[in-house]
Design goal:
EC number: 2.3.1.-
CATH class of the largest domain: Alpha Beta
Structural class: alpha+beta
Largest sheet: 6 strands, mixed
Oligomer: single chain
Radius of gyration: 28 Å
Shape: globular
Number of strands: 20
Cofactor: (R)-lipoate
CATH topology of the largest domain: Chloramphenicol Acetyltransferase
Family: Belongs to the 2-oxoacid dehydrogenase family.
CATH superfamily of the largest domain: Chloramphenicol acetyltransferase-like domain
Protein name: Dihydrolipoamide acetyltransferase component of pyruvate dehydrogenase complex
Distance between the termini: 69 Å
Strand content: 15-25%
InterPro entries: 2-oxoacid_DH_actylTfrase, 2-oxoacid_DH_E2_comp, Biotin_lipoyl, CAT-like_dom_sf, E3-bd_dom_sf, PSBD, Single_hybrid_motif
Number of domains: 3
């Protein structure tokens, strides 16, 4: 009997994977332990080994396609053995056409999804389709056995029209007890519409700009493209962070003279050890020291509970393909400058080549994002949840400043700290930024 090859689940948060490369072709002999395929998740790239001997009979998910975890993506068996076609849950990007439901089980007459203790029974692929489309499973008519929601049910489901509100309008409507159902004819409800209802005015008509934004025109040859798993993960995480954290960004200038002198004085010595010393390494060391002095910044916040971490696991945003990933260097507060430099460069190399381990991706307590190499002088980085702050590092620019009553030119650099105001107020954020500045402008204080 043929052995099913499943899409592996390589981490608690992994829900799907993209096949980067099949190491074997259909018809090739396979031995247990042979590299069978490479899979990309939203964070990592892994090579997967075969767990059975035989022949690769059929590939169900070709290179470049995405499949949910634990779904069948190929079969290994005896030469000439017959295997089934791709299951409905294998090809995520392009599901097969949905067959019409039998007349006796037409959607209008089909029973609602069977619930067991509040849980809606559905096939894995149906759940994924419903999640992707934003459909509530409990409202979908089920045609599967024992009231199970099938993929065809999700495809056939037509949701009731829903009122679209801007975030501010939704919050105002909830606070003022406004019934938004009266706005069904309006394309998107804005703050002014809700306020108009409070004052017994008619809802404002949608502005033309809002209509065009909701349905952008398409020129000849234009078509939407599915983004990578990494970009989808970034979109989800950043959207969540934007809605979770009441954030404020604080900017503080730093005179980088001492930092440049420190790098220049150690550059040759580090080079002899095979280490390329960068400003990021010095910044990481100073930031790690400051975080040990501000435990509420080196913390995370969940369910109205704060966790102050004993170690500084310092994340660094690294560009990879069409997005960013944030590996972190563990126990950074206990490392010397050379150890930070070695560890950081190894971490960046692993991130860009897809060799990061799950441990290298999880457990971060604070993040640094540097846009200095791109000439950026100010920006507002978004917090990497569930952390409480992120430090943006800007370009070093020769700038005229006043020192002891004289105008002199100094290499100045802005630090931009975005902090979660639920825990870190303006005073704490300012003191933390000032402490990093003191260490960068006087590196000898690191020896104290």
């Amino acid at each position: 009997m043929a052995t099913e090859v499943l899409m592996p689940k390589l981490g608690l948060t992994m829900t799907e994977g993209t096949i980067l490369e099949w190491k074997k072709k259909e018809g090739d002999p396979v031995r247990k332990g042979d590299l069978l395929f490479s899979v990309e998740t939203d964070k990592l790239t892994n090579d997967v080994e075969a767990d059975a001997d035989g022949t690769l009979l059929k590939i169900l998910v070709p290179e470049g396609e995405t499949s949910g975890c634990k779904t069948v993506i190929a079969y290994i068996g005896a030469p000439g053995e017959t295997v089934g076609a791709a299951p409905a849950s294998a090809a995520v990007p392009a599901p097969a056409p949905v067959p019409a439901a039998p007349a006796a089980l037409a959607p209008s007459a089909a029973p609602k999804a069977h619930r067991e203790g509040g849980y809606v029974t559905a096939t894995p692929y149906a759940k994924k389709l419903a999640h992707d489309k934003g459909f509530p499973l409990g409202e979908i008519s089920a045609t599967g056995p024992r009231g199970m929601v099938m993929a065809r049910d999700v495809e056939a489901f037509t949701p009731a029209p829903r009122v679209k509100l801007s975030p501010m309008a939704a919050r105002l409507a909830e606070e003022m007890g406004v019934d938004v159902s009266v706005f069904e004819s309006v394309n998107r409800i804005m703050k002014a519409d809700v306020l108009g209802m409070v004052h017994h005015e008619e809802p404002a008509a949608p502005a033309p700009a809002a209509v065009s934004a909701a349905a952008p025109p398409e020129c000849a040859g234009e078509k939407p493209e599915k983004v990578s798993a990494l970009r989808r993960s970034i979109a989800a995480n950043m959207s969540a962070s934007w809605s979770i954290s009441p954030r404020v960004t604080y900017t503080h200038p730093v005179d980088a003279t001492a930092m440049k002198q420190l790098r220049a004085s150690l550059k040759d010595e580090f080079k002899e050890q095979g280490i390329k010393l960068t400003y990021n390494h010095i910044l990481m060391m100073c930031t790690a020291r400051a975080l040990t002095e501000f435990p509420d910044v080196n913390a995370s916040f969940r369910d109205n509970m704060i966790t102050r971490h004993h170690h500084v696991n310092l994340g660094l945003a690294v560009a990879k393909g069409d997005g960013l990933i944030v590996p972190n260097l563990k126990n950074c507060e206990a490392l010397g400058l050379a150890e930070i430099a070695k560890g950081t460069e190894a971490m960046i190399e692993a991130a860009r080549t897809g060799k990061l381990t799950m441990d290298g991706m999880t457990g971060g307590t604070f993040t640094i994002s540097s846009l200095g190499p791109y000439g950026i002088t100010s920006f507002s980085p978004i917090i990497n949840q569930p952390e409480l702050a992120i430090l943006g590092v800007c370009d070093i620019v020769d700038t005229p400043v006043v020192r002891e009553g004289q105008v002199v030119v100094r290499p100045m650099m802005n630090l931009c700290l975005t902090a979660d105001h639920r825990v870190i107020d303006g005073v704490m954020a300012s003191r933390f930024l000032r402490r990093i500045t003191e260490l960068l402008e006087n590196p000898c204080r690191l020896l104290a």
